[in-house]
Specification:
The complex is a heterodimer. Chain A is mainly β. Chain A has no helices and eleven strands. The chains are: A mainly beta, B mainly beta.
Chain lengths: 108, 114
């Protein structure tokens, strides 16, 4: 099956800093999603991005499908950005395959 | 437009009891997926259903677990004779009736087996 790897596994930032999270996947995929799991455990959809670049406020994402990776950029980080960021790919059977996540802690 | 709804949000069961988890998809969505998240781990696919059909149950444990999505009413994930290892967060997601579309998640049900 498809393997999804995320890096770094942990990230500690001071408020205001920028960061880049990476997601590598081992095979062609139909689509890719980024999620934020907040400290209360809720999964929030960030991006649905099979290819190209999208931006939403301080967050943006780029997927290069031909090279099998996606990047999530967080600019001017805030304490509310803390949590775990998951990348997940949709395979040809329509199920999401999740990476192991990047745990982000932002300190004031 | 209400999001994906799950209930209960928290469920405590003693070993050997049954757990029933419910999921109502977003309006207009006919595809439902169940995922399980063990403590400190990522989410793992369990089952994919459409109305009255199980499309893919390759992630479901072979025993004690079952899922349904009836013509009327919510999708149900049922765990019989729960064991401590079943303690986890169970998430439901839904998507429109097209292949490969974005999945939207409910708030999850946190099952604790004592």
């Amino acid at each position: 099956g498809i393997q999804v790897e995320q890096s770094p596994p942990d990230l500690i930032l001071q408020e205001g800093a920028n960061s880049t999270l990476r997601c590598n996947f081992s095979d062609s995929v139909n689509n890719l999603q980024w999620f934020h799991q907040n400290p209360w455990g809720q999964l929030i959809n960030l991006f649905y991005i099979p290819s190209g670049t999208k931006q939403n406020g301080r967050l943006s994402a780029t997927t290069v499908a031909t090279e099998r990776y996606s990047l999530l950029y967080i600019s001017s980080s805030q304490t509310t950005d803390s949590g775990v960021y998951f990348c997940a790919v949709i395979d040809n059977t329509d199920k999401l395959i999740f990476g192991t996540g990047t745990r982000l802690q932002v300190f004031p | 437009n209400a999001g994906v709804m799950q209930n209960p949000r928290h469920l405590v069961r003693r070993r050997g009891q049954e757990a029933r988890l419910r999921c109502s998809p977003m309006k207009g969505h006919s595809h439902v997926y169940w995922y399980r998240q063990l403590p400190e781990e990522g989410l793992k696919f369990m089952v994919y259903l459409q109305k009255e059909n199980i499309i893919d149950e390759s992630g479901m444990p072979k025993e004690r677990f079952s899922a349904e999505f009836p013509k009327e009413g919510p999708s149900i994930l049922r765990i019989q004779q729960v064991v401590r290892g079943d303690s986890a967060a169970y998430f439901c997601a839904s998507s429109p009736p097209y292949t490969g579309y974005e999945q939207y998640f409910g708030p999850g049900t946190r099952l604790t087996v004592t």
